[in-house]
């Protein structure tokens, strides 16, 4: 029931000088209306200097993060990313393995598919050498598996249809 707010600590857009404040998460406790002054999750420190790009809640206090590829930089608006999983309660940070390296990425889809059970998240990623593939990350192990190849220029979004 707590609410977490994430800041990338950037001042505008791609290549804009980062803020002097770190990428971080703050919390509003369930039933409260003010930020919890005792909570500050310094994501940039836990990642050894990387800025947050965005965060997606996957369940069980965990978020899947896209991080900028270079330390202390906000170059590469939405592509050329590294990936991580954080637990906002115990403030752990784990880099994801098995995703394409940042310098190999040509396009990352805007909307991932998060499994209903919160155990996996899937992204459409195109590399400079290959057609797009779906990469599925096991949240518990922070390991990605390259899956379905799509004969297209890129994958914008992934979803599940139920009928």
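Q: What amino acid sequence fits the structure above?
A:
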């Amino acid at each position: 029931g707590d609410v977490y707010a994430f800041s990338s600590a950037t001042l505008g857009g791609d290549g804009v000088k980062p803020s002097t404040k770190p990428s971080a998460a703050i919390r509003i406790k369930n039933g409260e209306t003010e930020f919890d002054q005792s909570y500050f999750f310094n994501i940039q420190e836990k990642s050894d200097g990387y800025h947050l790009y965005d965060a997606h809640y996957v369940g069980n206090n965990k978020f899947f993060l896209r991080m900028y590829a270079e330390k202390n930089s906000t170059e590469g608006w939405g592509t050329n990313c590294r990936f991580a999983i954080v637990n906002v309660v115990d403030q752990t940070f784990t880099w994801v393995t098995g995703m394409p390296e940042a310098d190999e990425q040509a396009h990352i889809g805007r909307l991932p598919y998060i499994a209903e059970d919160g155990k996996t998240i899937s992204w459409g990623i195109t590399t400079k050498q290959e057609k797009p593939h779906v990469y599925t990350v096991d949240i518990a192990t922070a390991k990605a598996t390259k899956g379905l190849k799509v004969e297209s220029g890129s994958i914008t979004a992934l979803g599940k249809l139920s009928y």
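Q: And what stands out in the fold?
A: Helices lie at 43-46.
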